């Protein structure tokens, strides 16, 4: 599974404005709903916030993978966001989170959803990849970093 199979170029947010966890999740939900008519902003925000209440999706090293399931989608939908100044996100390592990769899967999805989460976590563990994403000047450049990384596998 390739990350570029999950994310479209227009689903990259290079400069998130929110400065706290709930605001980041709401901003990403608003962004995704504005670009995908199947996604309801309020429902997605609720799903992401409820998932965070179970346990933080911040995996450390500046990365979080907020995720959830919606009946309204029939395939995995993804969005990549960046908070330049970092946000407190209850990360396992206690450090700020800068990169947010949101995954929204159909309610019936199990295997594909888990494979996508595993693939994203593996790729985002690479410090050079994260560094390139953080240094990218805009959303197009961030998307290209993801595409270049995917091409290696």
Outline of the structure:
With 153 residues, this protein is α/β, with parallel strands linked by helices.
Short descriptors:
153 residues, alpha/beta, Mannitol-specific EII, Chain A, 5 helices, globular
Question: How are the secondary structure elements laid out?
Answer:
Elements: E1 12-13, H1 21-35, H2 41-54, E2 58-60, E3 63-64, E4 67-70, E5 77-87, E6 97-106, H3 111-124, H4 127-135, H5 139-151
Parallel strand pairs: 1-5, 3-6, 4-6
Antiparallel strand pairs: 2-3, 5-6
Question: What would you note in describing this structure?
Answer:
With 153 residues, this protein is an alpha/beta fold. The chain has one domain (3-151): Mannitol-specific EII, Chain A. 42% of the residues lie in helices and 21% in strands. It has 5 helices and 6 strands; from the N terminus they run βααβββββααα. Strands 1, 2, 3, 4, 5 and 6 form a 6-stranded mixed β-sheet that branches. β2 and β3 form a beta hairpin. The longest helix has 15 residues, at 21-35.
Q: Write out the CATH superfamily name.
A: Mannitol-specific EII, Chain A
Roughly what is the average pLDDT, rounded to an integer? 95
Q: What is the 3D form? A: globular
For the report, how would you describe the main beta sheet? Answer: 6 strands, mixed
Instruction: Provide the gyration radius in Å.
Output: 14 Å
Number of strands: 6
**CATH fold-level assignment:** Mannitol-specific EII, Chain A
The CATH first-level class comes to Alpha Beta
| Count of individual domains | 1
% residues in beta strands: 15-25%
Chain oligomer state: single chain
Tally of contiguous helical segments = 5
- Which stretches are poorly predicted, pLDDT < 50 over at least 5 residues? none
Look at the helices and sheets and give the structural class.
alpha/beta
Q: What is the end-to-end distance? A: 9 Å
